[in-house]
Design brief:
The chain has 12 helices and 9 strands. It is of the alpha/beta class. It folds into 2 domains: 206 residues, Spore Coat Polysaccharide Biosynthesis Protein SpsA, Chain A; 86 residues. Helix 2 links the parallel strand 2 and strand 3. Helix 7 runs parallel beside helix 9, helix 9 packs antiparallel against helix 10 and helix 10 runs antiparallel to helix 11. This is Glycosyltransferase. It holds the Pfam family Glycos_transf_2.
Length: 315
């Protein structure tokens, strides 16, 4: 019996891009999947488009619900999923035809709990060029190693996002995305990776992330969000309770660096509310620095934080 993959697609105000997304999923070379379109109270033509797909293809199911945000829509899809494997695709993105076929193949061959691939950022007019490499290269990490990759600048994006991966559904037995939070993946990915026995990545950029200027991911590259800092505070508790000193050290260096950067950006913005928050996070940085600097083992990192500490931004 083939494994059933439940692909969860939250839908909200993406009428222009929705068909491209759904068509790419229905064109998968792996046939045994269900597509769960979660209409999150979209006020445009998306609900009708979703219903049309459900009428035309028996693999498509639609959930219509009141607007609750991306996390709430994903959670509704998880609760409704019939598959033993889960995937997430944002409704303005799209995927390569072999996306799920290859992820499932390496997941089973390696006995992994999560399989992921590289991400290709695309713009509105960009055309995707087929670039097949032979053979597919893969790297296998333990769950702990995969979690550590969240704090590696080169591995961060493909580690933190939910949508470039295939998951065993059992990982979500006690984990859901945080309702009402921006940057929901920051609150969730470390828990999923940490509890995995192993995680495998392939060297194919088979997830096409459409980067809109008004999108969260487009903005976050330029500006740190308080939601991300909140997520990192949750990581601190999570790793401390489990005695993960090395992960805590890596996380705290990144966290302290982001707090400092947020404070700096806020002051430069000229906006009174952001300046107020910047002052708060400047004080928080100085307090947390004194608490955690002894846990940072690498001299270069410790020196950089020392420099941040001794040159104040806010007064």
């Amino acid at each position: 019996m083939q494994d059933l993959i439940s692909v969860i697609v939250p839908v909200y105000k993406v009428e222009k891009y929705l068909k491209r997304c759904v068509d790419s999923i229905l064109a998968q070379t792996y046939p045994c999947l269900e597509v769960i379109l979660v209409d999150d109270g979209s006020p445009d033509g998306c609900p009708a488009i979703c219903d049309e797909y459900a009428r035309e293809d028996r693999r498509v199911r639609v959930i219509h619900k009141e607007n609750g945000g991306l996390s709430d829509a994903r959670n509704a899809g998880i609760d409704a999923a019939k598959g033993n494997l889960l995937g997430f695709v944002d409704s303005d993105d799209y995927v390569h035809p072999r996306f799920y076929e290859l992820l499932l193949q390496v997941l089973k061959e390696e006995g992994a709990d999560i399989a992921g691939c590289d991400v290709k950022k695309v713009c509105e007019t960009e055309k995707i060029k087929e670039t097949e490499k032979q053979p597919v290269q893969r790297v296998v990490y333990s769950g702990r190693e995969a979690t550590a990759n969240l704090y590696d600048a080169h591995m961060y994006l493909k580690s933190v996002v939910a949508w470039n991966k295939l998951y065993k559904k059992e990982l979500f037995e006690e984990i859901r995305f945080p309702k009402g939070k921006l940057h929901e993946d920051e609150f969730t990915s470390y828990k999923l990776l940490y509890q995995s026995e192993s995680v495998v990545y392939i060297d194919r950029a088979y997830y096409f992330y459409f980067q809109r200027e008004d999108g969260i991911m487009g903005k976050e590259q330029r500006k740190i969000s308080p939601a991300v800092l909140e997520a990192y505070e949750g990581m601190e508790t999570f790793f401390f309770e489990r005695g993960e000193k090395d992960l805590l050290q890596m996380m705290m260096y990144r966290y302290l660096s982001m707090v400092r950067r947020y404070a700096s950006d806020a002051v430069k913005s000229g906006d009174e509310e952001e300046i107020r928050q910047g002052r708060y996070y400047e004080k928080k940085f100085r307090k947390d620095y004194r608490k955690y600097i002894w846990k940072i083992k690498k001299p270069k990192r410790k020196f950089r934080l020392w420099m941040y500490y001794h040159f104040k931004i806010c007064v």
